[in-house]
Each structure stands twice: as C-alpha cells, then as structure tokens.
Amino acid sequence: MEYTTLGNTGMEVSRLCLGCMSFGSSDWREWVLKESESTEIIERAIDLGINFFDTANMYSRGESERILGDALAEFDYRDAAVVATKTYFQMRDDDPNSGGLSRKAIEQELAASRERLGVDAIDLYQIHRWDDDTPIETTMRALDDAVRRGHVRYVGASSMWAHQFAESLYASDRLGLDRFVTMQNHYNLVYREEEREMLPLCAKENVGVLPWSPLARGYLTRPHEDIDATTRGKTEEYLYDHPYREGGGPEINERVAELAAEKGVTMAQISLAWLLHKDWVDAPIIGTTSVEHLEQAVEALDISLSASDMAYLEEPYEPVPVSGHS
Predict the structure, then answer these.
(1) Cβ distance 150 to 121 under 8 Å?
(2) What is the distance between the alpha carbons of residues 89 and 296, in angstroms, rounded to a whole number?
(3) Most C-beta atoms within 10 A of its C-beta, which of 89, 190, 198, 245?
(4) Three-class SS of residue 42?
(5) Known catalytic residue at 59
(6) Annotated catalytic residue: which of 59, 154, 219, 317?
(7) Domain boundaries, the chain
(8) Domain 3-219+280-290: CATH superfamily, name plus number
(9) Which helix (H) or strand (E) holds 34?
(10) What residues contact 23, with CB distance under 8 A and at least 6 apart?
C-alpha cells in the first residue's frame, strides 16, 4: 500500500479510501451487502494496508456507520483507522431537523454518528452537500465548536459549486474558524468538469481531494453495452440520469477497454490508475461489493500509465452538464 499526507492535516492515509456506501441493508439499495459480507471486505482492506474509511450517516440510514464501527473494534483497528463520515441528508421522515446543516442538525446527527461508529472523535467530518437554507457562517461555527469540543478532528466538504467552497473557506478565515481541509467531489474519466474551477481551487488552498464515483457508478468497469445487464445497471437511476453515456463517454469507455486488454489488467484498474496519476488527487474513494474487486483496486497502484496513455484516454472527452451538486 502507498500512503500520502491528506491535504495539510498531517494525517497519513492510504492512497485508496474504502467507501462504505455498499455496507448496510439491501432494503435501502438492492446492491447493498449484509453485515457479514461487509465485515469480510473491511477485514481484507485492513490486511491490504488500507487505513482510510469513508461512510455517511445516510448510508442505509446509519447501518453503514454501525457496521464499520463494529468491524474496526472487532479487528482492534479503531485507533489506527482514519474514519470519515458525512451529514446533510434527512435521516428521519418525521423530523425535518434531522437533515440540513443547521446547528441543531449538525449537533444531533454528529452525536448519533459518533455513537454508531463507537468513537469519541471522528477524524474527518464532512458536509455531504451545501445547504441553501443555512448561512455558511452558522454551519462553520457549529463545525468549529465540534472540533473544539474534541468530537471532530478535521472538517471537510463534498460536492458543491467552486464559488460556494471559496465562500466557506473565506468565512472560516474571516471568523477565525477551522476551515475545510478536504473536498470529496465527483471526478472520473467520463466526468471531468471539476478540472475547470474546483480542482485548481483545491490545489491553491492545499485542500485534500477525495474523488467519489471514480469508476462512474460502474460505467468504467466493463464495455458500455454490458452495463445494463448488471444489478446496479438495472436499478441505479444515476446511470441513466447522468451524461456518462453522452459526448465522448462511449469512446472513452472503449479506449479504457482497449488499454486494459493491452496491459493485461481490468478496465477498473486502468480507470483507477488514471486518477492515481493526477497530482491533485489524494485518495479516490472506492466502493466495492467483493473482496476480489477490492484486491484488484489495490493492484491498480502498481500500474504505470505513460503520458501518451493518459492523453489517449482523455482525448475523446467533451464538456457535459455539471452534476453532483444536489
């Protein structure tokens, strides 16, 4: 395993972060794994040297956090792990204040996440989206208070417009509050709109970058004509609503398949290797439903792509509508 310093935090994290969205209950999403299968993947991740885990309170309505916390305790890895979780989406249908980024929402949902994870302090607490109904100063003060109480070590953000992220950093600096140290954004070979503003901003501010959906919801793992035959392809509305299939998407998919065959590796490994070659990426967040795919993801660290390989994969890309901000 390779390790890197996460932004300017000083924390050393594995170059791959295990995303835990697929752990919890199939009642929430059809492709989500039950606890025993989830724990097996977490155990193998630890064996492979992964020390960075990302979840969210809304994943299986808290079950993902509980499963991760229980597994880290079982394998005596709670202190060694760098644990990240997120808040924003409404957790209970009958409680509108269980979502959003008000002080009440942040304080009560943070307490619930800490309990499910079984930790005194969450290493990286992230806002899952931007809240138009709450002034950013209110949100940043609540997060800063959580850091000062020792309930959170660092705070981060997820998909939003670059001007909103800049506004949040400015508010923190102006008020003397802890600022966001990471950006978890939507970035992969077939969605590169973040290269226009968000990624240069993160590089300038020394903010760690943790791309989500590095394999484009599975679109970059197999020939595009085969996607619809998978469980996720049949049930994931995102694959139909998102313009992965528009513009240069199909040709990029074909070039990934071609380069994978040439190098004797999988399409997923080529797609991950491309991200790992990007200087502004700290750790892609990889979600998986099998130990085999996890092991293949770790092997992608050893794949070397030349400048001509990178250019060949990128050349067909065409601008697509911005997404992932809501």
Answers:
(1) yes
(2) 32
(3) 190
(4) helix
(5) yes
(6) 59
(7) 3-219+280-290
(8) NADP-dependent oxidoreductase domain (3.20.20.100)
(9) none
(10) 32, 33, 35, 38, 41, 42, 55, 59, 60, 63, 64, 67, 68
